[in-house]
Design a protein that fits this description.
Layout: H1 8-14, H2 40-48, H3 52-84, H4 89-136, H5 149-164, H6 168-190, H7 192-239, H8 241-246, H9 250-302, H10 308-350, E1 371-378, E2 381-387, E3 391-396, H11 399-409, E4 419-422, E5 425-426, H12 432-438, E6 439-442, H13 453-458, H14 468-478, H15 482-487, H16 505-518, E7 523-527, H17 535-548, E8 553-557, H18 561-566, E9 569-573, E10 579-583, H19 592-600
Helix pairs in contact: 2-10, 3-4, 3-6, 3-10, 4-5, 5-7, 5-10, 6-7, 6-10, 7-9, 7-10, 9-10, 14-16, 14-17
């Protein structure tokens, strides 16, 4: 056999039906109807039956396993009555062979049923996590109930996992119910009073389980909410650790996390206590039911109504039936309750309305012209600004007004009043691609993705762009990245790490600026793009910025004197929305102190 020949194992696996093993790549998307009218209960049910290609065969195999388990005491009873009791060796050997076949069947069904069911569960989990992630990252954003990044991450991971686990409630209970029914039928055949007790008692216990699950549902939902808040607080704390360290707020941050973690711990303990009480009570009810059936069968045997083989069958079925009855308590109780609580949190993401309305049915074409902000509410007032169509414009304002304007310019939030127009076209009537070609906002944090320096900068340039290399070089030069590349061990090929954490703050900011400058957009909005670099580097960036963006509009939110010195226009916005504009002739006398004074007035 050559090295390129497939091994016998590989060849054999290639002949197995696809649902017997995980494919090398995730299969296509799974159709699940989730809209604004979907309730948490409907989402759990749709999740349970979302992948019938795997859950249906898994359910049949699990039924086979449970039926096989129930057949064991039945076959043993027949072997005793028809072989051992009569002294017939041939019959005894035959029934032992039948028992071996039953064990082989139930073992095969259990192994492959669980395997296929788990694969279906993972497939549905992948689909749900993909949908939640797509919603979190949707360009139109989310409004309504606010989620911190950490909490959104917790919903996309832990809650989606718990919701997908609800698939088990669609697979295993069918086998358990089949086992209970088979036991009831056999007991009816052996003794109809016992059969009636089992067939009427099982639904009664299921009803009790559903009624008793109410308090646990409430506690489980509260536990998951508080645990998500604690996880979100931890994730946000780690993400902002440098800032917290810089302002000396470690003690306060630690106190807040301890408080959130303490609330989560209290909720977890309370929920687990309720869960323990719930499961203990349900198992006690189940055990009491089984004991009653066993005692009744024993009385009939003493009276001669049952044979020895039938007694063994009844005792065996009585012992066996405890397992599926207890499992029903778990699947219809714990798994269902947990999945239902998680479904509410998942829907809080999937049903969150967009922060920005959809574009017109026929989106406006690419817009060109000056940016006009007309009467939009920001800070404590309303602002109207006509931004120049070209050149560098510096906006000097307070933090709250800056945040509101950046949110509107980036289309993260559509103002209730006023408008944002570009060349007469409402920016919110554009589709996402056209809007980015018109106005692109580079946020202050400028997070980098894991990869090399070149990967991060070139992400803003289409792969098929003819001037790809030139744009990359110009962007790196304008952001003064040449000395960054010189000190990095592998130059442009150096990995920046997760979120750029292998770079210093100044290096990370310059790479993010280069990525913004490499993008093709008419109006580029920068938010404090140089506050993490030294003054010499900042001056060089300011000089190169105007050249790099020549003929196009660049809007910079900053108080930097170096950037003001190269600005064609400086606009100061006071806290009440008053706008003052200075042109290039007054730039040389303008300082950051004067700008701050105007903002305060």
């Amino acid at each position: 056999m050559t090295e390129t020949d497939p091994s016998p194992t590989t060849a054999w696996r290639g002949r197995l039906p696809v649902w017997f093993e995980a494919p090398p790549e995730p299969h296509g998307r799974i159709a699940m109807k989730i809209d604004e009218h979907t309730t948490p209960r409907q989402l759990v049910l749709r999740t349970m039956f979302a992948d019938p290609r795997r859950t249906v065969p898994a359910s049949f195999l699990v039924i086979g396993h449970q039926v096989g388990e129930a057949l064991v005491p039945i076959v043993m009873g027949l072997a005793i009555d028809r072989g051992v009791a009569t002294g017939d060796a041939t019959a005894t050997i035959g029934w032992i062979a039948v028992l071996g076949l039953v064990f082989g069947m139930l073992s095969f069904c259990f192994r492959f049923g669980s395997r296929i069911g788990f694969l279906g569960m993972q497939s549905i989990q992948h689909e749900l996590r993909t949908r939640v992630t797509e919603r979190i990252l949707a360009p139109r954003g989310m409004s309504g109930l606010g989620h911190t990044p950490g909490m959104a991450l917790n919903i996309a991971t832990a809650d989606v996992t718990r919701l997908a686990t609800g698939v088990a409630a669609a697979i295993y209970p069918l086998g358990q119910i089949a086992a209970v029914i088979l036991c009831g039928v056999v007991l009816l055949w052996i003794s109809w009073p016992l059969g009636v007790v089992v067939l009427l008692g099982a639904p009664a216990i299921l009803w009790v389980l559903d009624r008793a699950g109410g308090p646990l549902r409430a506690r489980s939902e509260n536990e998951q909410q508080l645990a998500g808040e604690a996880a979100g607080s931890a994730a946000d704390l780690v993400a902002g650790f440098r800032v917290i360290k810089g302002i000396g707020a470690e003690a306060e941050a630690a106190r807040r996390y301890r408080d959130a973690s303490g609330r989560a711990l209290t909720a977890v303990v309370a929920a687990r206590r309720s869960q323990g009480t719930y499961l203990g009570a349900m198992e006690a009810i189940t055990a009491l039911f089984v004991v009653c059936v066993g005692v009744a069968a024993g009385v009939q045997t003493v009276r001669g109504a049952l044979t020895v083989g039938e007694l063994i069958t009844v005792v065996g079925l009585t012992q066996f039936i405890m397992a599926p009855m207890s499992a029903l308590a778990t699947n219809f109780g714990q798994i269902w309750v947990t999945a239902l609580a998680s479904s509410k949190r998942v829907l809080s993401i999937l049903q969150a309305p967009p922060a920005v309305r959809a574009p017109a049915e026929v989106p406006a074409p690419f817009a060109a012209g000056p940016v006009v902000v007309d009467g939009v509410p920001v800070g404590s007032g309303r602002v109207s600004i006509d931004l120049p169509e070209s050149g560098v414009t510096v906006l000097v304002t307070d933090a709250e007004t800056r945040t509101d304007l950046v949110s509107i310019l980036s289309r993260s939030h559509e103002p209730e009043n006023g408008s944002l127009r570009v060349g007469g076209t409402d920016l919110f009537d554009l589709d996402e691609a056209s809007a980015l070609r018109t106005i692109r906002v580079a946020p202050h944090d400028g997070a980098l993705f894991e990869g090399s320096v070149e990967d991060n900068v070139a992400a803003a340039i289409p792969d098929d762009a003819d001037d790809r290399e030139d744009r990359l070089t110009r962007a790196l030069f304008a952001s003064v990245c040449e000395d960054v590349i010189d000190v990095l061990p592998d130059g442009l090929d150096t990995s920046v790490g997760e979120a750029g954490k292998l770079l210093s703050g100044g290096q990370r900011q310059r790479v993010a600026l280069a990525r913004a400058l490499a993008a093709e957009t008419s109006t580029l909005v920068l938010v404090d793009p140089t506050n993490a670099v030294d003054s010499v580097t900042e001056t060089v960036i300011a000089e190169r910025l105007a050249t790099a963006r020549s003929g196009r509009s660049t809007v910079v939110f900053t108080h930097s004197p170096s950037l003001m010195a190269v600005a064609d226009t400086i606009v100061s916005i006071s806290v009440d929305g008053e706008v003052r504009t200075r042109n290039g002739a007054a730039v040389s006398q303008y300082s950051s102190v004067g700008a701050a004074a105007e903002v305060d007035r």
